[in-house]
Amino acid sequence: MNEMRHHTSRRKLLGTGAALAAGVAMPAVLRAQEPPKPAELIVRAWGGVWVESLKKGVSDPFTAKTGIRIRHDLTEDNEIKPRIWAAVAQGRTPPIHVNWDTTANATSSALRGVCEDLSDLPNLAKVMPLAKPIGFTGVPIVNLYSYVYVLAYRPEAFPGGAPDSWMVLLEPRFKGRIALYNDGIGFHPVAQVLGGGKISDIPHNMEPCWAFIRKLKEQKPLLGEDPDFTNWFQKGEIDVACTISSNAREAKLKGVNVAWTVPKEGAKVDTDGMWIPKGLPANELYWAKRYIDFALSTEAQQVWLDGLGLPGVAPGLKPPADLVGDPSYPMSEKDFERLILIPPRIQAEHTPEWFARFKEIMQS
Amino acid sequence: MALLVLLAAPSLVVAGASLTAGEIVRFPPDGLSLRWYSRILDASELRDALLRSLEVAFVCTALAVPSGTLAAIALARFRFRAALAIQLYLLLPFTVPLIGSGIGLMLLFGELGLLGRVWPVGVACCVINLPFMIWAVAASVNALDPELERAAASCGAGPVQTFVLVTLPAVAPGIVAGALIMFVLALNEFLVSLLLVDARTVTLPVQMYTQIRGVITPDLAAVSTVYVLVAAAAVLVLDRLVGLDLFLRAR
Amino acid sequence: MAPFSGRSDRRTGPALASYRFSWRVFDVLEALAAQWPARAMGLVKWFLLLPALLIVGLLIFGLVVMADASFRVMDFRTYQLSEHYSTANYVRLWGWGAFWATLWRSLGAALLVTLICLVLAFPYAWALTRTPNRRLRRVLLVGLFLPFFVGQVVRAYGWLVILGYEGIVNKALAVFGLGPYRLLFSYPAVLFGLVQYMLPFAVLMLMPALAAIPEEIERAAASCGASPLRAVLRVILPMARPGLIAAALVVATLTLTDFAMPAILGGGTNDFLANLVHDQFFRTSNAGLGSAIALVLTFLGTTIAGLLLTRAGTQAFGLRGTS
After folding, report:
1. Does residue A190 sit in the same domain as residue A233?
2. Whether the predicted pLDDT of C44 surpasses 50
3. Which of B132-136, B151-155, C187-191 shows the lowest per-residue confidence on average (mean pLDDT)?
């Protein structure tokens, strides 16, 4: 529990490394010993804006540099997990080379021991310490950027400007017009605060969180996943939602009228990462590592994460023009003070239990 | 008539929305255009996925028609001591939740080294939908008068001849109905396929529904519409070839 | 058993060549069939059944794996199932409110959707088999197959457009000064979606049975002075029973194990048991608990199917058993 950093500070996150990343450029000595290149690598990604920006920022430039084609597998992160686990258990070659995954979900795979160690990636020394997950020997997952579970809203419903507190979720006029993720993900720490509890009590005493979620249930929230939120905003089904900022931004860029904010109680910040399943042939493992190493470079992150509107771990990144000063794109120490980080390992070990409680409340 | 509207409404709305000229799917569309259709014509990934889905559907149907037909005839014509148990066993594909079937088949095919190929997906689709085939045929066998078979036998036809020349044609409506269902369902199967394919053998439904995260783009609506049109065409071609009246035919 | 053959037809010309060929084939086959030892005749029925038994048998492997997993507990510090066996997963289900809520919701849906589908499918199938208008028949048939081809996500979008808060129905109601109403994301909405999805299956199961009822029987009933309604209730329905049972079996078991409709139209608060299974396997990676729920669900479905079959009498369902 001591290792938990609740209100993360920018300084800690930045830590070392102001040096510019060198892309996939490696010393010529190393290159001479390169193992044979596979014709292609398979990288799991999310569909829509996610895969498009990855392709533009990481995959296509990687192909240009190495000649290795990248094929994207668009299976959802939690749906590919049983496939990888089964492949490792049966001693088969896994279905993908690189898994782009939420850190919390990836942590369960790391705990199960199906991830290759990535501690020898050259770029790892140059990026924020946030890139290495806490509490593991070695580096089973490399974190690539952070994102915030913001309060997204329809501006028409708030003529007086952005709401400043999550408490708007309880306003009678929004009954049946609010939305959360269907496992409550991204909302538990906020609910803990709103219920009068302390973040430091997570995971031991979460009664305040459950008390607040019970109250919220009376408001008849809709529960869904990323595509649902966009649809519901677009079709006027909801006014307020707790969702990842990039989904709200994509909807906005596509013409749906939606805005977002980080209320005074704060918002949950999380990271996404990449990892390599065990069981690949040695040469494919080598090139998969090179892919992740390239995804850590400033060159790749600047293009890729501009597309997602998310702050990366590489040094020297510039925020996209529309997100300068946006609370979902934390830059300064002050920005980070309002964000709540629950260590992925705590999440991985307790998510099943939180999930059961959340379902218990919402399904009855 | 109201039922027809109820059945067709979501498809029609999506088809209408796919004609949009705008960036996101809306209904009514923002102006009409076929630009999203020209875009999917270029997408070789979708084309390859469609071909794989057709292979899956053919494998599934080719397996289901003989096995389902024989089983239905056996069940309808012979007395089995454990009839109820056999029927409940043959119903397992419907009573085991699809996720369970999918995980089980993934582990089995993984053990046998069959993952990463297309035809096992067809086998899986056959497994999870086989009861449709059996019952469609069983309903027809039931309708067949046993007198007819007895008459053939008394005219000197042997058991094989009776079966091929009398029984099979009589249950043809059920076979056609069952084969259609099997083909269509295999073409559109998502959840179990998701666990069995990889990025190199992805089928069309898996390709389509994993593509979306966030905004539903008009090309997806366009693909759906193409799908509907292909389906309608398949039904019409079948009609031309064998005549759909075949399976409505009253004796 | 004298084969109905063309052996005496040697003088025939080319016109009959093809017939002769097929006769020869039959001769060979009949001869082979005759070789079959008479005392093994009882095995024929099992040979007919064997391919289907084997295909469904592929599921048994998964069932055994799940049965094994359901008695092991997931350790979330290592994400491995325990080595030892225990009934902890089942005990946990017994005391988990969300499990019971979803269980009753799934059972209720199976009952209601089956009844509604049978009532709606009967006239549709009747119209299909009885209309003299070829074009209408085509339209009805295509309408039947269309819904299969629109996938879940797109279908969900279609329903939003039609039944959403700002959808077509609410806009129409607004003309009369009504609404807007929340029509989606509730139990009735899930039931509605399921009926729409299952209706084609019910119609397809009913059609062969209805097609088999000779029209003379209706006419006979009418000529005996029965009103059309009476004719349907007293004559047609009993004759269509095999089809009705088949339709009920299909709709009830598929509804019970459905997971897409509650996910799409339930708004996240109307889950069925299959959604819980999905969550446990994919979201929380608890294969032990997920397997336990899946097995409970399989047991429920099999029990319902068993009741339907025994209540309706196996006589009515395919098993006429002439030999």
Report:
1. yes
2. yes
3. B151-155
